[in-house]
Amino acid sequence: MNEDPLALLPEIAVLAGAVLSLLAGSFLPRRRQWVARLIAVAALLTAGIAAAVTMGGPPRTVFDAFAVDTATNTIRLVVVAATLLVIGLGVDELAGTPRESETYSLLLLSALGAVVMAGTTDLLVLLVSFLLGSIPLYGLIGMARSPGSAEAALKTYLLGALFGILLMLGVTVLYGVGGATSYGPLAVGLGDAPAAAVAVGVVGVLVGLMFKAGGVPGHFWVPDAAQASGTTAAAFLTTVPKIGALVAVYRLVLVLPGSVDWRLLVAVLAAVTMTLGNLAAFAQTDARRLLGWSTVSHVGYLLLPVAVAGRSTEALPSLLLYLGGYAVTNLTAFAVVAALPRRRSLAEYRGMAAARPCLAGALLLSLLSLVGTPPTAVFIGKLTVFTAAWDGGYAWLVVVAAANTVASLFYHLRWIAPVFRRGPAPAAGERRPFATTAAVLAGGCVLTLGLAAGPISSLLDGPLAG
Amino acid sequence: MLSLIVFLPLAAAAVLAAARRLPDAAARWSWVAVTVAEVVLVAVAVVRYDTPAGAGLAFEQQVPWIPSVRSSYHVGIDGLSLPLVALTAVVFCACAVHAVREERRPRAQAALFLFLQSVCLGVFAAQDLILFFVFFDLSIVGMYFAIAGWGHGNAARSAMKFFLYTFLGSLALLVGFIGLYLGAQPHTFDIPQLAAAAPLANSPVVGGLVLAAVLVGLAVKTPTVPFHTWLPPAHTDASAIGSAVLAGVLLKLGTYGFVRIAMPLLPDAWQAWSWVVLAVGIVSVLYGALVALAQTNVKRMIAYTSVNHMGYVVVGVGAAGIVGGGTQARELAVTGAVTQMVSHGLITAALFLLAGVLQDRASSYEMADYGGLAAPAPRFAGLFAVAAFASLGLPAFSGFIAEFQVFTGSIGVTWVAALALPGILITAALFLRAVQRLLTGPPGARSVGFADVRGREALAIGGLLVLALVVGIVPGPLLDLITPASHTVVDLVSR
pLDDT tens across B21-71, in order? Predict the structure, then answer.
């Protein structure tokens, strides 16, 4: 009845794109690897169009394991747009390199993992999507083939294995006490299950998913990987995996019974994550590592609506809005980093405003957006997320988050200040037209998303399936 | 009309920022032209302004923005905001004229100040909390770049301190706004609707906490004791026009928030906490004056007198919340507070522009470096003396009208407000001493060859002072604007 493969057209398109670009890449000479890129882009565009067409349709569940509703469709669009942007900002770096087509293939597979994770309503599929999203990441991080990237890849791999096992443990326990893996029956089954066992299972699954989200306690790999991997991979891994993971957490917590105080667990994870991410970012001098820690802190804010899932009508729309706004903002910052490959430390950004005014403008927009300055994308996200959290009874968490926002201003200013200071600019590297274009485009989107938040948020207001 | 006033400078800023090949002179003169056009537009608005009935707004405009949280682009002006809109246009115009010989990146500076002008006008015009916050926050961003980019001394550090401190305030404000939004049924960010609904009236604890958040946010911006510590370094290291805008306009964003948001939207909490507000106001008046008295640096001294002068505003709005006092006295206090905002804007902007002349000629603000300036620079001496007398509240200047009303009103409400009276005396003493040290006596180390105020500087500073004089001699039109609005505010806060 609900086995309708057409409903999964976006996922199928991405999967086909991944396989085809890998195959094409194997048979093409190196100077014609751009064909593989075209295949990947075409697959993503197909997926995006297919998702946009189904947007606004009635919510439903297919194959008893995958919800096709507003949340899934939004995440499909966000992931597709983010991956396209990642490819756009990475073309200059990747074109003509030995691993070009493999990179596209891995990007698509990991993106597919994120979408499946966001859409699934079954613990076993959740597990599969965890692996599907993680394993390509290890490859992407190691692709740079520098000592640093090897270390980061190993670290990510070991942590990924550990948290994968925790996730599996949690899934096993929940299945054991709940008697089902599909969320619908599981919710019924967990209703009268022993609270302690449910708590163990929940902690396992949540902590496992925190690895993908990049939140405490699974955050250790994020700054290392952001700093040491190639810019394309860094942009991708700080953006896309968490999109899937956070929506997955949101769907899962709605299933849990009232006997376990999961709200408090999520709230504490949120507070610790944002605080740790901000404090750790204070002392960073490397631009990418700073972004890596900043992304950790944002997971904390993103957990706010999860903590009040089901209590505030604004929770899900605000989560989706924040995810979309954050994705484009973070990718703008990485596009600027990609366009200026010679500048690594914050001090090296000195004099950039005079040398590259367009890039400086895009960087300013994205950093101000990361801080949450109006009228940018993340400001609207923060506003709605704070409102939802307060509405759901977590006013103290809003205060913690507001204080953290002030703290985050400090290290973002440490980056903005040299950009606009006069000084001898470092020798200009080669021009990177694709990354520059991506940065300017994405910077425009940061502002547009903030100003056009009204019509966009009305699109996100739909019920979950199942 | 109002949207044109708000966004014309922003559009001009965008054009200036994009036009990279524009010659410097063209950038400077187009800046002057836009600000003059703004003054003309505002003058037209003032002439066409007709006091709306009840709590209504003039030039109102509303377009849905984020319907899911009932936030809209809602602008409109009344007797509280129109004087401040006019003040903003005048101060920015004076700055543009003053900076017409600016050598350091004039195009970028013009774009930045036009941007700042837009967001300041936006704050005064906003009738929606989110819109208010958007402009409020952007004013901080703009000012950060104005200090960091065109300041001197330890500008980067001062700018950082300014940004962090005032951003903390604005986040507190945002938390308060969210509380107001959730407290109203149905949830809304619209200021007139919230004022009509008076949310959180029945929950003193939550109402008090929300007011506390809003007050902290506004107090940082105003600034009042104990949140004033960002002000002196920011002023000392900012450029002359940066300081003039910061003191003349940006500080008003905080005090304007008291009469626009805190009082009408949270009347119960305001009544409950008005004694605290009054006390903070009195302490600000006295502390600001005493610390200003101890300064040897002219700019720091003027910065601390801003704390003192803003203190009078806080005293006025604090007294207005004490319901026991007579309605008339409380209205007088509010009218005085709003007049004081305008008056302080005009006079302090002129003082900071004069301090900028010192920096420009001799790169020092230390009073000890000067002396006997009346001989080499008679025009400077004349303008400084007039500005100093205006600032200390000499009759015939706007400061007198404002402080007279604040004190008559607040002392009419409660005798406690009289504790702030010594502030006037101390301010008089410190300004007279500054006049004496700078302008009279034997010439100091840097007085020799001090070039007098030039035409454009005299025009900018003199223009501001003439306006202060006009308001002081013919206060009628301004008070006619403000009084109906303060009547409305007192009505609202007495609920």
Answer: 888 889 999 999 999 999 999 999 999 998 887 778 889 999 988 888 888
pTM: 0.93
| pLDDT score, position A466 | 60
Chain A neighbors of B178, CB-CB under 8 A: 383, 386-387, 390, 398
The number of beta carbons lying within 10 Å of the beta carbon of residue B421 is: 14
> Is residue A15 pLDDT above 90, yes or no?
yes
CA-nearest residue to A380 within chain B is B66
Domain boundaries, chain B: 2-493
Q: Taking the domains of chain A in order of start, what are their residue ranges?
A: 5-459
Q: Does B64 touch chain A (CB under 8 A)?
A: yes
Q: How far is CA B134 from CA A206, A302, B118, B211, in A?
A: 36, 21, 12, 20
B325 CA to chain A: closest CA distance, Å? 36
- CA B479, B485, B491, B492 dihedral sign is negative
Helix, strand, coil fractions of chain B, as percent rounded to 5? 75, 5, 20
Q: How many CB pairs under 8 A join A and B?
A: 79
CB contact under 8 A, A458 and B64: no
In chain B, whose CA is at the least distance from the CA of A415? B160
Tell me how close the Cα of B321 comes to any Cα of chain A, in angstroms.
27
Contact B397, B472 (CB under 8 A): yes
- Using CA atoms, how far apart are residues A96 and B274, in angstroms rounded to an integer? 70
Residue B101's CB is within 10 A of a number of other CB atoms, namely: 11
**ipTM confidence score:** 0.90
Beta-carbon separation of A383 and B134 below 8 A: no
Six-digit token pair at B133? 């916050």
Interchain CB distance below 8 Å, B20 and A383: no
Phi and psi of B59, rounded to 5°?
Answer: 50, 40
